[in-house]
Amino acid sequence: MATQRKSILLRLDPAIHDALVRWAGDELRSTNAQIEFLLRKALAEAGRLPRNAGGIPRRGRPPKRRAAADPDSAEPPETAPANDQPPDT
């Protein structure tokens, strides 16, 4: 069961907001995810991050499954040599 996320209104100095947007872009995060990342880091460093705090939800496309788990993407089976000669033993 997914925990519902809290929404808050955050007022920021425009220069601070612009700096956060650039930083988030550099790290391939949304501005919201960057703010949450920084808050979690600050809470952890201060020893105040709750033990029951959920993880940051992953966004975007899910990772591809390994070939063994996905029969459609498995490599084709090895085939016998093209010539009619039996292999040397």
Keywords:
Toxin-antitoxin system HicB family antitoxin; extended; about 90 residues; 2 helices
Query: What string gives the helices and strands in order?
Result: HH
Low-confidence stretches: none
Q: Share of helix among residues?
A: 25-40%
Please give the count of helices: 2
For the sheet with most strands, the description reads:
none
The total beta strand count reads: 0
Structural class comes to mainly alpha
Task: Using the alpha-carbon principal axes, give the shape.
Answer: extended
As a whole number of angstroms, the C-alpha radius of gyration is 25 Å
CA-CA gap between termini = 59 Å
Instruction: Estimate what percentage of residues fall within beta strands.
Output: under 5%
Could you walk me through the main structural features you see in this protein, from its secondary elements to its overall organization?
With 89 residues, the chain is an all-alpha fold. The chain has a domain at 11-48. Helices cover 31% and strands 0% of the residues. The protein contains 2 helices and no strands. The protein has helices spanning 14-26, 31-45. The radius of gyration is 25 Å and the shape is extended. The chain starts with 13 loop residues before the first helix and ends in a 44-residue tail after the last helix. Residues 46-89 are annotated as: Disordered. One of its GO terms (biological process) is regulation of DNA-templated transcription.
Summed up:
By secondary structure, the chain is mostly helical. It contains 2 helices and no strands.
Chart the SSEs and their pairings:
Elements: H1 14-26, H2 31-45
Helix pairs in contact: 1-2
InterPro entries: Ribbon_hlx_hlx
Region (Disordered): 46-89
GO biological process, one term: regulation of DNA-templated transcription
